[in-house]
Structures are given as C-alpha cells and as structure tokens.
Design brief:
The protein has helices at about 10-20, 25-35, 50-65, 70-85, 165-200, 215-245, 250-275, 290-300, 305-330, and strands at about 95-100, 105-110, 115-125, 125-135, 140, 150-155, 165, 205, 210. By secondary structure, it is an alpha+beta fold. GO terms for molecular function: flavin adenine dinucleotide binding; short-chain fatty acyl-CoA dehydrogenase activity.
Length: about 325
C-alpha cells in the first residue's frame, strides 16, 4: 500500500531498488547515490528535499523486503538535529541517542554499525548536541529479537563541547522516533497480511483451498482490519505532523493513538498469521517470521504498548468531557 501523497512512480522505484539490491553489500552507497539516504534533507544541504511522506514510503519499502539498515535513524532522527545546529549531515551512516545524567544511553539503534553518533544530553536547563565519530564513544553491543543492533552507548560528556539545541527539538525527536516505529510496524503487518492471503489461496486442505474455510476467512479478516486500523491511525498522525511541522498541539495524542493501535494490532496479526500458515509459518525457511517478529520487536521500542496506552489514557482524562472530542477530531 503506497503512502498517501507519494508519487506512484517514485514508490515503484523505491520498491524496485530494494527488490533488486536489498542484499547487496554496498546497498547504503547505492541508496546514497540515488539521493535516498538523505531523502528529507534540503537540497542546499545535499539532501533530496522530500517530505516525511516519501520517507515513510521508503521505510515501508525497506520493511517489505526485510532490509535492515539505519535509514530512519540517519535521515529522520539524527540529521535533523545536525541541521538545527548548522552541521552538515553527509552520507556517513548515523544514529542518534539521548544520554542520561551519566552520559549513558541504552538500546541505541545501530550504534555499533554507524560511522557517527549524534548525541544529545542535558546541560543545566538546556540541551546540547555533538556529532561524534564512533570511536569517540564506548559501545557495548546488543540487539533486538530480529538481530538489529540495539547497543549501550557511554560518552564522557565532561570532555565535550556540545552545541545548544532547543528543548522543542528534543521533544520532537521523541515523537519522531515513536512515529518511525509505527510506520515500520504497519508495513510489517501489511506484509504479514499479504503472505497470509497468498498462503490461504495456494494451500489446500481436505481437497479445497484454505481460503474456502470460514474459520480461515475470519482470521484473515481480523488481520486485515487490525492492520488497516493501525495504518489509518499512523497516517492520520503523520498527516498532522507534516502539516504542522511537528508542532501541532494535538500531535502527542495522535502519536500515542498510532502507537497504541499499532501495538495492539501486532498481537492479533502475529497470532492469526501464524495460525493461518500452520507449522510452515514457524520455520526459519518461510519468510513470515521476518515480518511478525519485526513487528513485535519494534512495538517495544521508543515506548512499550503499555506506556503508550497509559499516555493515551492520561491525555484523554486530562482533556475532560468538554475537550475530549476536540482532541480526537482536531
């Protein structure tokens, strides 16, 4: 499913690149040459001048082909911080982390494979940032359940001179990080739906296709409805974020809705997709696990399902009866 507002020809090109070159060792360089690594950067800074809509389509295409590279962390999370402080963000793979008071950060995506790490930390009542080479920080490797690097990073902030960044940028970074994972979850759920439909149509049991059994039809219908709900919530939040340049007053609520819907949808989709596939769906040889396990991994990052449910409940309660409708329907 193409992201609304994205040119179909561009979406097809993105999909074709991953389909043909997704396993290439020089994929990052190829994407950089096509202007896709810094897709949302301004043309003056060496980017392609695209929006988050095109970036969402690129991320979705990568998920559909099970390509694991730090596209989102580089283009959508790390580079905007550098843009804000006037530092050029080149094509060297980057990630970003928010350090605690000790100069540490847990589960930093792709730190052990990035060439540079954009670190942010509190300095009194403000925040500062620095673009660090990977060998300037201490990295303890880790990974999530699909093998993507989620590393511990330690930085001696006392020896660094950071550049001041607006606190608003840090707040936006939190929302953008959550939105990135919601986009990826939706793409994984859509792919699980496609595989389930293909399997039900092609496999036979008791002399007829699985798709003819009412129980299987109900399972696939549940997959489709949950995936559609998650995508609708995510696209709604993304639309408001893009229109308001990540400053819309209701954006916190909409991102919480997207993450809550995507997280709960993952439970239903993963369960039903594996039931539809039966034993073959649990094997490493079948591709289903590349998407179901990814959805489960990503829904726990940048806030768990419980965290986003609680955030959603708190905001709805705080709005009260008089303001709740305006929060839901801005």
């Amino acid at each position: 499913m193409t992201t609304p507002g994205v040119d179909a020809a561009l979406a097809d090109m993105m999909d074709a690149v991953f389909a043909e070159h997704g396993r290439d060792t020089d994929l990052w360089g190829r994407l950089d040459g096509l202007g896709l690594v810094r897709l949302t950067g301004s043309e003056d800074s060496g980017g392609s001048g695209a929006s988050w809509r095109e970036a969402a389509e690129l991320l979705s295409a990568a998920v559909r082909h099970a390509v694991r590279i730090p596209l989102a962390e580089h283009d959508l999370l790390a580079c905007p911080v550098l843009d804000a402080v006037g530092v050029l963000c080149d094509g060297a793979p980057r990630t970003v982390c928010l350090l605690d008071g000790r100069g540490h950060a847990d589960a930093v995506p792709w730190a052990s494979q990035a060439e540079r790490i954009v670190a942010l930390w509190a300095d009194g009542d403000a925040y500062v940032a620095a673009d660090l080479a990977a060998d300037e920080v201490r990295i303890t490797p880790g990974s999530n359940m699909i093998g993507e690097p989620r590393d511990h990073v330690a930085v001696d902030t006392a020896s660094l001179r950071g550049v001041a960044v607006p606190s608003e940028l840090v707040d936006q970074l939190r929302l953008k990080s959550a939105m990135v994972r919601s986009i990826q979850i939706c793409a994984a759920l859509d792919r699980a739906l496609e595989l389930s439909i293909e399997h039900a149509r092609s496999r036979e049991q008791f002399g007829r296709p699985l798709a003819k059994f009412q129980a299987v039809q109900h399972q696939i219908a549940d997959i489709a409805s949950e995936a559609a709900l998650a995508r609708s919530a995510t696209e709604s939040a993304l639309s408001v974020a893009v229109a308001g340049d990540w400053r819309a007053p209701q954006l916190d609520f909409l991102v919480a809705v997207a993450r809550s819907c995507a997280g709960h949808a993952a439970s239903v989709v993963v369960r039903n997709a594996h039931q539809v596939h039966g034993a073959i769906g649990t094997t490493r040889e079948h591709r289903l696990h590349e998407f179901t396990r990814a959805a489960l991994a990503w829904r726990s990052e940048y806030g768990s399902v419980r965290y986003w449910d609680a955030r959603l409940t708190d905001m709805a309660t705080a709005a009260g009866a008089n303001e709740l409708w305006g929060l839901i329907c801005p």
